[in-house]
Amino acid sequence: RHSPRVTVIGAGKVGSTLAQRIAEKNLADVVLLDVVEGMPRGLALDLMEARGIELHNRRIIGTTDYADTSDSDIVVITAGFPRKPGMTRDDLLLTNAKIVMEAANKSMSYSPDAIYIVVTNPLDVMTYLAWQATGLPRDRIMGMAGVLDSARFETFIAMELGVCSLDVKAMVLGSHGDLMVPLPRYATVNGIPITELLDAATIERLVQRTRNGGAEIVELMQTGSAFYTPASSTCVMVESILLNQSRLLPVAAYLQGEYGLNDIFTGVPCRLGSSGIEEIMELKLTDAEIDALHTCAHEVRKNITRAQEIFAAVS
Ligand code: APR
Question: Whose CA is nearest to atom 19 of ligand 1?
Answer without folding.
Answer: 12
